Amino acid sequence: MPDADRPADLVYRTRLPIRLWHWTNAITIFVMLMTGMMIFNAHPRLYWGSYGANFDYAWLEIGNHGTQGYVTLFGVQIPTTGVLGYADHTDEAFPPLVTLPGHYNVPVARLWHFFFAWILVIGWIGFAIYALVSRHLWNDLMLKREEARLSSLWHDIKDHARLHLPRGEAARHYNPLQKIAYLGVLVLGLPLMVLTGLTMSPAMDAVWPWLLVVTGGRQSARSIHFIVAAGLALFIVVHLAMVLLAGPINELRSMITGWYRLPPERPAPGDKA
Amino acid sequence: MSSLVSRRTMLVGGGSLLLAGCDKWTTSPQTLDVLSLGEKVTRSAQRRLEGDRQALAPEFTRAEMSPVFRVNGSTNPTSAGYVAHAAARFADWQLVVDGLVAHPLSLSLAQLRAAPSRTQITRHDCVEGWSAIGQWTGVPLGLLLNRAGLSPRARYVVFHCADTLLGKPYYESIDMLDAFHPQTILAHSMNGAPLSIGHGAPLRLRVERQLGYKQAKYVMRVEAVDSLAPFYGGKGGFWEDNHNYQWYAGI
After folding, report:
1. B182 and B195 belong to one structural domain
2. Given CB atoms, is B130 within the 8 Å cutoff of chain A?
3. What pLDDT, in 10s, does the model give residues B164-203?
4. CA B120 to CA B138: how far, in whole Å?
5. Do residue B97 and residue B145 come from a single domain?
6. CATH at B225
């Protein structure tokens, strides 16, 4: 794709299927998280094992005493008024600001959730096939032997902590922590969400009883579903922070057009790349 | 101070307006129409996977049962007829099986208790997210339908219940695939004792591959029909008619 008229530091970094999948997921995962929090509000308690209801021990509970919101984690109650349990004059576990719909409506949230679940699954299968066939998985996502060494990972962690992001040629490829984060979402996070989601379906438990063996029971599946969703939310926060730090315009352009301007090796004064 | 308050009020007010506008769109009938496509795909996918295998819902041991099985939904019907039956411990109560059948049945609780039964320890999954495991004993629904001489025209079974929610009568319905599933029973006993009023005495439906709101309590009449359209809101159940819940509750 290189073009004679383009400056040498402009590289074609992100291929179309990757960009398509990225933006599909950007919408899908937001809908899944927001409707998921709405559905969670119907019974904001989590358990381990097969069963779990009001009289059973909940390892996590979001609730309120009147207008005082709280989160109880392993028996320790933490006040969360204004954020969780009670916020915005609403006594829901997750406040209206972050749920879809913005008022208590489980059936509508379920319609949204299961519609976008299909988009998530179809997108994941399509992308998984693409990543295997195009060798995107091996060439770009899997860690190289030298990257997987503890010393080099430690080096990368220190670089990230100091906000020393890769520049020049090094910015042409994903860095090791970035690869681990993307691989985590692709091969661990999303498949776990789908498996634990399916385990919560009584029909699927009849058809595929192994789901219960893999996840440890319906209520365990519900807990894992929640924890991995929280992990995905954390991924999004870090991901957006990294985009801001690495230069939002340049990063957005590469995810829309595919073209990315390599940041110069040494930042020059007044450089706004 | 006052400017701070008004600014906050403005922000919150503006945010609420925006949310309200969004909410209108996210819950509009047109939006729900499009989204229900996903529900149709889910239903046909799950039905295809279930196929003719009549895959059984997982069953558990006594040791795996919930220590306390919570009650929910209607817990104490107040209609005069039901109250009288409950006071008489359902001695004169009769279950009616009619509709598209050759010979309608009228069965007393004693007759139902004496009929062939199935006992199963299964997990009850509420649409809200909680689960409880309990033991159910009752007459397989398919047995009653066969004895009544079910017409081949029948496509659904409607369960008319004694309870009302928000002033409307509770009812539910299932198709023949679930009606003749071996675990689909009309339970008269729970955890080895006669069904309590909180759990749906004298008779409740167990349709184990679907969510809790399908497990109709206080079943008075079982009607075989060829269409759900003529009943109440036409969507096949109380929650379906009044609250956008889906008729197929396999997920």
Report:
1. yes
2. yes
3. 998 999 999 999 999 999 999 999 999 999 999 999 999 9
4. 9
5. yes
6. 3.90.420.10
SS3 B40: helix
Are residue B23 and residue B98 in the same domain, yes or no?
no
A59-83 burial code (b ≥16 CB/10 A, e <16): eebbbbeeeebbbbeeeeeeebeee
Q: Which two tokens stand for residue A256?
A: 């829309």
Q: B56, B121, B131: which to substitute to probe chain A, counting the most A Cβ within 10 Å?
A: B131
Domain with B44 in it: 1-51
Instruction: Note whether A105 contacts B50, CB cutoff 8 Å.
Output: no
Exposure letters A221-234 (e unless 16+ CB within 10 A, then b) = bbbbbbebbebbee
Residue B142 in domain: yes
Number of domains making up chain B: 2
Per-residue pLDDT of chain A (273 residues; tens, 9 = 90+): 445 556 778 999 999 999 999 999 999 999 999 999 999 999 999 999 999 999 999 999 999 999 999 999 999 999 999 999 999 899 999 999 999 999 999 999 999 999 999 999 999 999 999 999 999 999 999 999 999 999 999 999 999 999 888 888 888 899 999 999 999 999 999 999 999 999 999 999 999 999 999 999 999 999 999 999 999 999 999 999 999 999 999 999 999 999 999 998 865 555 544
Handedness of CA B193, B195, B198, B204 (dihedral sign): positive
In residues, how long is chain B?
251
Q: Which of B35, B66, B208 sits opposite A51 (nearest CB)?
A: B66
Residue with tokens 């009607």: B223
Q: Which residues of A touch B (CB under 8 A)?
A: 39-40, 42-43, 45, 50-56, 88, 96-97, 100-103, 105-108, 110-112, 114-118, 200-209, 212, 218-219, 222
The model's pTM is 0.92
Claim to verify: residue B162 and residue B214 sit in the same structural domain: yes
Residue among A107, A201, A207 minimizing CB distance to B243: A107
Q: How many Å lie between the alpha carbon of A53 and the closest alpha carbon of chain B? A: 5
Check A107 against B244: CB less than 8 A apart.
yes
* CATH number for the domain running over A10-41+99-261: 1.20.950.20
**Could you give the angle at the alpha carbon of B195 between the alpha carbons of B191 and B199, nearest 5°?**
95
